[in-house]
Amino acid sequence: MKSSETAHLGKDTRTTRSHPNPRCWSAHLYVELPRTDIALFKFILESCDNLAYLSVLDKYRALVRITFAEDMRETVVSLVQSLEDTVAIRSCFSISP
Asked: How many C-beta atoms lie closer than 10 Å to residue 56's C-beta?
């Protein structure tokens, strides 16, 4: 090992960065739908030019979270509303920070 490498051992050389609140970066929409429609809903949502992505929160209740940029909220909500004929959405809600 070089002497310059040994000088860094045991020392934290990372710099501390302050990050903005993650809620400023992303918005979330929560949707409850039939379990059999989760894959179809995810496929359609993520095929729209990376508009949003879907995470399954509870596979038994079929509760999913849609994550997207805050400035795309209107587009995402209108997409979800347009999918109501294809996917039997039971509930759709947002939690305010």
From this structure: 14
Residue 2 lies in a domain: no
pLDDT in tens, 60-79: 999 999 999 989 999 999 99
The total number of structural domains that make up the chain: 1
6 within some domain: no
- Please, are residues 64 and 41 in contact by the beta-carbon 8 Å criterion? yes
Phi, psi for residue 91 in degrees, rounded to 5 = -155, 155
Question: CA–CA separation, 38 vs 36, rounded Å?
Answer: 6
| pLDDT, tens only, 7-50 | 555 565 666 655 555 446 789 999 999 999 999 999 998 898 88
Structural domain range at position 41:
23-93
Determine the Cα–Cα distance for residues 32 and 61; give it in Å rounded to an integer.
7
Residue type, 49: D
What's the whole-model pTM score? 0.70
